[in-house]
Design brief:
The complex is a heterodimer of chains A (about 280) and B (about 300). By secondary structure, chain A is mainly alpha-helical. Chain A is about 75% helix and about 0% strand. Chain A has eleven helices and two strands; from the N terminus they run H-H-E-E-H-H-H-H-H-H-H-H-H. By secondary structure, chain B is an all-alpha fold. Helices cover about 75% and strands about 0% of the residues of chain B. The chains are: A mainly alpha (about 280), B mainly alpha (about 300). At the A-B interface, helix 1, helix 3, helix 4, helix 5 and helix 6 of A face helix 1, helix 2, helix 4, helix 5 and helix 6 of B.
Chain lengths: ~280, ~300
């Protein structure tokens, strides 16, 4: 009898320990980045371009570039994702076509980010001759986050009670109008939450923009969607691996990482808080 | 326009737009093959995949990616050794044992971990873990399989943990109650009832976590060391496929054999992850968790 409870306690200690290791590692990681990066981050760092072959100055062009790429990605992915989710959850009947679409979405979600980069290079940069620019990068990132948006939107749509739809349909309202006026407004907070998580993902990706949008260094800010841009994640990679001043630029590297992590984790945190707020508020 | 017609048109437009994911997947295949296929005029498929020498810039060049494939598999294997126990055990903790407050804190933490940009983890591996490994084990370099596996496992843990947790959480209460009623302890219930019932979900989680690790680029690019050779110990450097693509694409002349070879490496990588994903999809559909037991 005692042996059974000893085993149980041993097991409980193990699982607690594994959860603790995970929580501790992310905690230590964030603290480490903050302590090392905060010294470099000030107003000039955020608002000035780099100078002296990127050993001094700020990271403003990279912040701006990441903003453009991310905004472009969400403009592409949000409408497509929401429409796909509406079809799958409101219109589609179970069948082989739907099954195929779902497999397609799951597989797209699993495509490695570097393969997305190759795809963007082959299709947008080379075949459509956009060149390496904001448009190519935004399209590549948009398709990368499409499955995330579809998944989140579908979940949000499924969360709207069936009775809402029945009440509307019972009043003689058409299906499309029911979706537009009843289902979508109620699902909107959930859809937004998912989209914010998608934004966070797009902002932090490096591999997909390496060959499609990101520049090592640009002398001036982009003026159109056909310009190359600097981007925060790529800037981190460049500073950390290329160049002859890797040790000297450590403070700038940590500063850039802090800005990137604060941006991405901040975006994720907004989504997480929003979601828990929605869940608490809704009582149907 | 009649109302019925309008409804029908909207439905069909939505249907067409929902095909976009499959369409993009198709385009990925088309363009990978379009840009990668010409390499097979230079080397045979067999030589390309099983060739031991990757010297794309030598004269004459050799395009064999076997050491890159082995590199990818090795780091994925060791990353799984770390990530699978951590991910599954933490999922059991969150779903079955943790008090509600801990649960509410732990789940967002996992999500934040999932959202960390991979380039940041790669940087951490380079700037912190590599020097430490180098000093502790007296190695020529800290950029090796061990370092890459540790950093990759951090990327795979959130996937494994959150999907496993969903699976464990959805095991019906009645199963557990039946087990307790027979006098089983909580541990026995988890080990003999809950985990077996959630096994398909847990397997899916593990496979998707491995797929994430094998396709992850920035970490292996920055910390795996980059040696295109078959490794002999976990302290050796490797050059996994994504690292090779990301590192060399910038330098490969446009539509040279090197460029084609990198796209062809992308084809191999794509089908490897596709295979993992289809298995995960198959398992989660074939062995769907049965809802509840009835008396």
């Amino acid at each position: 009898m005692k042996w059974r409870y000893f085993k149980q306690n041993l097991f409980f200690v193990t699982v607690r320990l594994s959860a603790f290791i995970i929580a501790l590692s992310i905690g230590a990681f964030l603290v480490y980045i903050f302590m090392n990066g905060i010294g470099a981050v000030n107003w000039d760092f955020l608002t000035l371009p780099p100078r002296d072959s990127m050993t001094k100055g700020g990271i403003m062009p990279a912040i701006l570039g990441t903003f453009y790429l991310t905004a472009g990605a969400i403009i592409i992915a949000l409408p497509l994702g929401v429409v796909s989710a509406i079809y799958l959850s409101e219109y589609a009947k179970q069948g082989p076509v739907i099954r195929l679409i779902r497999i397609g979405i799951n597989c797209l979600a699993g495509v490695p980010s570097v393969v997305f980069g190759l795809f963007g290079l082959g299709l947008f940069v080379v075949f459509l001759q956009f060149g390496s620019c904001i448009l190519s990068g935004a399209l590549t990132l948009g398709f990368l986050i499409l499955p995330t948006i579809i998944g989140a939107s579908e979940e949000a749509l499924k969360g709207v009670p069936q009775t809402f739809r029945e009440a509307s349909l019972g009043l003689g309202v058409s299906k499309w109008q029911t979706i537009l006026r009843i289902v979508l407004p109620n699902a909107l907070p959930g859809i937004l939450t998912g989209s914010i998580l998608g934004i966070g993902r797009a902002a932090g990706e490096t591999a997909p923009i390496m060959f499609t949008a990101a520049a090592f260094f640009t002398a001036k800010l982009p003026t159109s969607i056909f310009d190359e841009v600097m981007a925060l994640p790529y800037h981190v990679y460049v500073l950390a691996t290329a160049g002859t001043h890797i040790e000297e630029t450590r403070p700038i590297q940590y500063g850039t990482i802090l800005v990137l992590v604060a941006l991405v984790s901040g975006i994720d945190l907004i989504a997480i808080i929003m979601r828990s707020y929605i869940r608490k508020k809704k009582r149907w | 326009m009649t109302r019925k017609l309008k409804e029908k048109i909207i439905k069909n437009i939505f249907f067409l737009l929902s095909l976009v994911s499959i369409f993009v997947l198709g385009l990925i295949v088309v363009f990978l093959f379009k840009e990668g296929f010409p390499i097979f005029k230079v080397v045979s498929v067999r030589e390309f995949i099983f060739g031991l020498e990757w010297y794309p810039t030598y004269d004459p060049p050799s395009f064999g990616i076997w050491s890159l494939i082995v590199g990818s598999l090795v780091v994925t294997f060791f990353a799984s050794l770390i990530a699978v126990p951590l991910g599954v055990l933490s999922a059991i903790y969150v779903a079955e044992i943790a008090p509600p407050l801990v649960k509410e804190i732990f789940k967002p933490v996992i999500e934040l971990l999932a959202g960390l940009p991979s380039v940041v983890l790669g940087f951490f591996g380079m700037a912190v873990l590599a020097p430490w490994l180098q000093n502790t084990f007296g190695l020529p370099t800290g950029l090796n399989i061990l370092n890459a596996s540790i950093m990759l496992s951090i990327m795979a843990v959130p996937t494994i943990s959150s999907i496993s947790e969903d699976a464990i959480y959805s095991v019906s209460q009645e199963f557990k109650e039946a087990s307790y009623a027979l006098g089983a302890t909580k541990f026995e219930t988890i080990a003999r009832v809950v985990v077996p019932a959630a096994l398909s979900g847990i397997s899916t989680a593990v496979i998707l976590g491995m797929a994430r690790a094998i396709g992850e680029t920035m970490v292996v690019l920055m910390v795996a060391g980059g040696a295109a050779a078959i490794p002999e110990s976990i302290f050796d450097s490797v050059r996994p496929m994504p690292a090779s693509i990301a590192a060399e694409m910038g330098e490969a002349p446009f539509r040279s054999n090197h460029y084609y070879a990198l796209f062809a490496t992308g084809i191999v990588l794509f089908f490897m992850t596709l295979f993992f994903n289809l298995i995960a999809d198959y398992i989660s559909n074939k062995f769907k968790q049965v809802g509840s037991a009835t008396l």
